[in-house]
Write a sequence for this structure.
């Protein structure tokens, strides 16, 4: 198959199927702009989403990391994760109400409807559970407000567990185990990306629902602390869960630069381990923010170079999702496997998790 034929086939495959970006951070652009009075901010990003055939984005509107504050990091009370998550959540809901092209996804039926109507569904997620503070009852409130996925930690420690940067060998706390049980009862997906290895295995011990890793690659190919070992990949698959491969070059290759083929090698390795039905896409491709936005997110004196994200040139934007699909087809993956990796696997797992909500 020629490169052009593969790309044409990829575009048709994307047009015919649901495509889900399992990890995005549009709020990091949206929040500061809305605070300045700008409206319909997502209109800046919709052309790329349209070009990439994206049906749904899992946007992380709050969590542990300081950049989730929609106010500068040196503002009054910057460490107020619940406040910032609620502010960001309201910004996203306002954007959805102002844009006919967007819709809020509370169920997988909403995602299917978005595909049928040519809209982009937004799945609200947290990257780190700090917004629930020390009260699992806040999970029910966040669920009622639309949150459907929560990463237990970012890189640091919170009341639930240790992130990968702590190095203290801490597993889930008693509060963390309680929170996981409540997330499973409510039908909120539990995300292990950024969680320490000890926390990961602590979760495996107590989880009764599928586990997801929204944006992680293979440690066997690139031994980055954010990547998953083969045993972790197998454990996620055994739970019925899914892993979204990460497009950031640093997680693809230890050199800090990467090609699309190197990203596909992570897909290949995990597919060889557990099958294509447990692999998806969690690209974490940051939108093209400008320096003004960066200063708003951090502080005027921040080193903006710290926010330099690099990706394979063939997949440095969500508009280039057809390139990934074509690369998978060229690698010999079937149409059905590629459709699953691009979105069908996310849809299946989220349907399983979200449909299991139990009454209090």
């Amino acid at each position: 198959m020629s490169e052009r034929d593969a790309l044409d086939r990829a575009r048709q495959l994307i047009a015919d199927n649901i495509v889900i970006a399992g990890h995005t951070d549009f709020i990091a652009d949206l929040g500061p702009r809305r605070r300045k009075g700008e409206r319909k901010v997502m209109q800046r990003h919709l052309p790329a989403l349209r070009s990439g055939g994206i049906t749904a984005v899992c946007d992380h509107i709050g969590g542990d990391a300081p950049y989730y504050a929609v106010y500068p990091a040196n503002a009054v009370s910057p460490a107020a994760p619940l406040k910032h998550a609620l502010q960001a959540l309201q910004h996203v809901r306002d954007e959805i109400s102002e844009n006919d092209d967007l819709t809020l996804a509370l169920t997988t039926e909403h995602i299917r409807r978005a595909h049928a109507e040519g809209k982009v569904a937004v799945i609200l997620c947290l990257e780190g559970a700090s917004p629930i503070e020390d009260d699992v009852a806040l999970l029910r409130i966040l669920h009622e407000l639309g949150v459907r996925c929560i990463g237990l930690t970012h890189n640091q420690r919170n009341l639930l567990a240790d992130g990968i940067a702590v190095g203290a060998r801490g597993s889930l706390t008693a509060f963390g185990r309680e929170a996981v049980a409540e997330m499973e009862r409510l039908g909120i997906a539990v995300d292990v990306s950024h969680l320490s290895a000890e926390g990961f295995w602590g979760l495996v011990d107590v989880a009764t629902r599928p586990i997801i890793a929204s944006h992680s690659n293979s440690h066997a190919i690139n031994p980055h602390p954010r990547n998953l070992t083969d045993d972790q990949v197998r454990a996620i698959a055994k739970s019925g869960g899914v892993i979204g491969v990460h497009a950031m070059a640093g997680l693809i290759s230890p050199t800090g630069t990467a090609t699309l083929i190197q990203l596909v090698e992570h897909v290949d390795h995990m597919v060889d381990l557990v099958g294509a039905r447990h692999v998806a896409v969690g690209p974490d491709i940051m939108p093209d923010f400008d320096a003004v936005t960066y200063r708003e997110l951090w502080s005027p004196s921040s080193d903006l170079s710290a926010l330099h994200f690099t990706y394979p040139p063939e997949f440095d934007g969500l508009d280039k999702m057809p390139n990934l699909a074509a690369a998978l087809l060229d690698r010999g993956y079937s149409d059905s496997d590629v459709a699953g990796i691009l979105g069908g696997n996310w849809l299946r797992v989220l349907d399983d998790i979200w449909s299991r909500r139990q009454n209090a």
